[in-house]
Amino acid sequence: MSLPTDPDRTDPAGVRSASVLSWGLNAVGIAVVAFWFVRNGLLLHHPAWVWAVGAVALAAWAVREGARTPRVLVAAAGVMIAAGSLAVVPTDSLLVVPVIVGLVILGADLRLPVWTAAVAALAAVVVVAVTATLAQTSVQFVLGVSGGLLLGVLVGFSRRQVRITTAQARETERQQQRARLLADRSRASRDIHDVLAHSLGGLVLQLDAVEALLEAGRVDEATRRAGEARALAADGLAEARRAVHALRDEPQPGQPEPNRASSPSADHASGLTALLDAHRSFGGEAVVQGDATLAVLDDAHRAAVVQVVREALSNARRHAPGRPVSLSVIRDGDAVDVVVANPLPSGGQGVLGMRERFAELGSEATVEAERSDDEFVVAMHLPVDGTRDADTADAAVAAEDDRS
Amino acid sequence: MSVQLLANVLIGLALVAFLAYRQATWRSLDPARIWRGPLVMAIVGVVVLAQTTTSVTTTDVVFLGLEALLTVGVGLAMGAMTRFRTVTTPDDKGRTLQSRTGWLGAALWIVLIAARVGLDVLGGHLGAHLLTSTGTILLVLALNRAARALVVDQRIPRGGDRSAAARRGMMVR
Fold first, then answer.
1. Residues belonging to chain B with any Cβ–Cβ distance to chain A shorter than 8 Å
2. DSSP assignment, residue A8?
3. A159 with A278, same domain?
4. Could you report the per-residue pLDDT of A54-109, keeping only the tens digit for each?
5. pTM beyond 0.90
6. Domain-located, residue A33
7. Per residue, what are the HEC states of A146-186?
8. Residue A358 is part of which domain span?
9. Residue in B60, B68, B154 closest to A122 by CB
10. Residues from chain B contacting residue A143 (CB–CB below 8 Å)
11. Domain boundary at A124, A150, A174, which?
12. What is the ipTM, given to two decimal places?
């Protein structure tokens, strides 16, 4: 979960996000305006205050080019507007350029209220109109300058909108990343629960049996049980390692989503048979109907079924030790129903995990875990993998023969 | 002082007093319609102004700009002063949100009118005749309401969102 680390993106005022192009255009603008300001000034014989004010406006523009903090930027924009608008009339509207640039800066700054640029433009119009009145300039000139300032306000507003939109898009992206992170965490907790509950629960049963056998003096059987317990612990450790490995691996971009739901155990080729063997070795009884290898399912669905059945068997052992569990795999057209039933109710974290696991598959697969009469039934309904269907038809038939 | 002028002054004063009273009391507020008033006034103002044949001078622009700054400033201040509350029983249009600007806002309103009259007189002496036209008065009003609406629009406590500003608004007075 890497967050975007682009430094420009953490800059709401857009101080550093000014592109090289914008910087270059501004530099050219300063050079051109300064050139004509000096040239016209020498021809028109500007009074001293016009030279001073014009120089201040251009200097503020130059400061804006190098501004690194929003405060400096806004201050530079304010000086550009104030000094520029004073010198607009004496310089024949040449210095309206820094005023417009300053208005754009104020309008685009998200830290300032939205009306800042408009009010600054109004003030600039008043200043221009006063200097125009004193200099007996035509009203058309003032109106033209006002039009230019309005343009600056509009450009600033449009930039502001773009920045707001960008900020919102970034926020949405951040929230999506957060949601993905939470989903990953819940997946991790589920996988850890499945692995640990299964192997530790089985281990407790085995060790209980070992204890009972030793008390009865049946050392040989106890040794065999202890061996099985050791094998189970080793399996559990391997599963836990695989789970950690799977969690640590970054999912490949091209990988289809259902595979992300895959369980820590990578090896599900044997389907449910390994699980059933383990269940029986813990002293559990299981009645199996149908093809327990689940050959007609694709990997993701098979993995989900294996996890759910593991949880169901684990629950059955915990809540109904010594009672028979029935597992049925029923082929129904292009779908497969897997039903695990055991006496007495069960529930808890595992059932929630079952539902989440199936929801993540994103297919029509469903799982229901509920109490039905005096049994707890976990029923799964899954689509058959079309590509495997033809290849494994014989195997399924063979399995059915086996059953009959 | 003629009867006509006296009547005009009285009507004007009554109008100012009525508007000030409205500012100071709780009024139902429809967030979707706060822009309607300023928009209508601005359109009518522009239409009326377009029919005025007076030629515009730079002095006109100076005083128009000053008035616009004044009215926008007062409008922004009024918007910032506006308090909100939600009532349990909706009015006949189903609105539960109410707002008022308070007596300070009403005073500000009267200051705006007084400053405007002062500017009118000063501008008239300096040759700014556009100020006294009906269109300008409407535009100034529209700007004032628009500035207030701009601030109010951002401060309105949105439904369900109990922001700090909303709580503050509900607790005040």
1. 56-62, 65-66, 68-69, 72-73, 76, 147, 150, 154
2. G
3. no
4. 999 999 999 988 877 888 999 999 999 999 999 888 888 889 999 999 999 999 98
5. no
6. yes
7. HHHHHHHHHHHHHHHHHHHHHHHHHHHHHHHHHHHHHHHHH
8. 271-404
9. B68
10. 56, 61
11. A174
12. 0.76
